[in-house]
Amino acid sequence: MQKRFPRARSVNGARVALVERTLLRTPLYERHVALGARVVPFAGYEMPVQYAGVSEEHRAVRGDCGVFDVSHMGELHVDGPTAQVFLQEMLSNDVDRLEDGGAQYTLLTNERGGIVDDLIVYRFGRGVFLLVVNASNRGAVYGWLKEREPRGTEVRDASDEYALLAVQGPRSLERLGLPDAPAFTHEMGELAGIEVMICRTGYTGEKGVELCCAEGDAPALWDAVLSRGATPCGLGARDTLRLEMCYPLHGNDITPETDAISAELGWACALDTEFTGVAELRRIKGEGPARCLVPFVMEERAVPRQGMPIEGGGEVTSGTHSPMLDRGIGMGYVPAASAAPDTELVVDVRGKARRARVVKKPIYRKES
Amino acid sequence: MAAPESYPDDLRYHPEHDWARVEGDEATLGITWFAQDALGELVHYEAPDVGTTVSKDASYGEVESVKAVSDIVAPLSGEVLEVNQKVVDEPEVVNEDPYGGGWLIRIRMSDPGEVGGLLDAEAYRAHVAEQ
Q: What CATH fold (topology level) applies to the domain A290-368?
């Protein structure tokens, strides 16, 4: 039996532990409730999963502009004269290539090349860095770095001091009155009189910004963004948008047990630098991974979900219904021999064999 | 567009949020406003085959939204006469019109006496209020 109407379930299908503790709230909780959002427990927070509806919010981001409260994400300051050397040893990408005002997608890896977290590192100046990490990994990343923190580096969890809004969509800059700027850059600025860090980053595949502000300024910033015509969007649309773009979700597609090469994240690993697990990643790259994370679309009407077996020894790690393609889409690990685009897969959808096809990234392209 | 909340008086209800419209020895079945609202926008309807039988309190199919999948529980027992192909093709019809165009199957009842065990609209509304 499937569970009936599992309200207290996270959007990505991961089971939410029913533990006796108070869930945290972002500074925008009252705003979400007032807007009629459906609120669910996610990564220890009470987060809006949807307002008007997942598909409607999804289309708002693809066609115009949407705003997400992602204040549950963690912000870690890593500062000091040895901070850059330290981050180069901890993170998979090449921190030395970051300039002031730059941002970089990177991985915190373990000795096996597994992924402790995927994150974005922002450089403000020599020895001044900010890491924006997944909400569910905030404690793990902080603990990992703090334990290894060398003399001359200070790691500080400042997550509770900041709020983070993602404003995404083709009209987002126009609506916010912001000039265009290269992706993966950031600058300090002002919006509606509020001091914000404007980051040219996102998780939707659309043009847009992520705005980081002081926790106390979040409601005013949220109101200003909404008044400029952004559609409030929940975690449901965030998941369908990122999956159409094949952006991995930590905890689903990538975990401490999955290595970066098999996860097709080799592009975020500077294998010519020395970082935790690099030897293992070089070996896997040299030998070729046994399994690969691939995107796929369903050829029959069915919605793939995390944990469903893929015939021949694979498994779905993320699945949903694509609002843009109006069909089931997903990502999953398959044997390397089945990883090439156009390979036919068979997904076991609750006991029924359903055909799917491996596709190239991204699953959804604007031009198509 | 989602429909406003309603529980029509002419229907009978199963506590698992399914409805039945009884006409002679036939019944049309679907899920209630509460059920579609809890699930959100439906994207898939896994329907039973015509000619198969459904049993009261047992699952006869699945409806799936972006967020969740749910069994559909039969409020009555009988043989499947017709499946609503419109919902198979466009599952969101259930959200727009759960008691009209969003019906799921039509059955010939094998035990019309089961109807007496279902909730009327007033009792079902009270049940929903407790959820």
A: Elongation Factor Tu (Ef-tu); domain 3 (2.40.30)
Closest CA to A192 of A167, A214, A146, A224: A224
For A292-346, write each residue's pLDDT tens digit: 999 999 999 999 999 999 999 999 999 999 999 999 999 999 999 999 999 999 9
Distance from CA of A64 to the nearest CA of B (A): 19
Separation in Å, CA of B113 to nearest CA in chain A: 26
Give A254-309 as a DSSP string. B-TTSBTTTTT-GGG--TTS--TTHHHHHHHHHH--SEEEEEEEESSS----TT-E
**Among A6, A55, A328, whose Cβ lies nearest the Cβ of B68?**
A6
| Domain residue ranges in chain A | 29-70+162-243, 290-368
Q: Is A63 helix (H, G, I), strand (E, B) or coil?
A: helix
Separation between Cα atoms, residue A231 and residue B5, nearest integer Å:
24
| Three-class SS state of A190 | strand
Both structure tokens of B23: 């006409």
Q: How many angstroms separate the CA atoms of A325 and A339, rounded?
A: 22
Enumerate domains of chain B plus CATH numbers.
12-129 (2.40.50.100)
pLDDT digits 0-9 by tens, B8-23: 999 999 999 999 999 9
Chain A residues lying within 8 Å of B67, measured CB to CB: 9, 11, 49-50, 54, 236
Q: What does the CA dihedral A327, A333, A339, A343 come to, rounded to 10 degrees?
A: -40
Of B2, B70, B88, the CB nearest to A4: B70
Chain B neighbors of A6, CB-CB under 8 A: 68
Q: Which of B35, B67, B69 sits opposite A2 (nearest CB)?
A: B69
Chain B interface disruption, residue of A10, A56, A244, A301, most B CBs within 10 A: A301
3-state SS assignment for residue A331: strand
Tell me which CATH homologous superfamily contains domain A29-70+162-243: Probable tRNA modification gtpase trme; domain 1 (3.30.1360.120)
Contact B12, B115 (CB under 8 A): yes
Helices A235-244 and A54-63: crossing angle in degrees, nearest 10, is 60
Q: Cα distance from A4 to chain B (closest Cα, Å)?
A: 5
State the pairing for strand pair A309-310/A154-157. unpaired
Residue A42 to residue A25: CA distance in whole angstroms = 10
Q: What is the pLDDT of residues A167-214, one digit of tens each?
A: 999 999 999 999 999 999 999 999 999 999 999 999 999 999 999 999
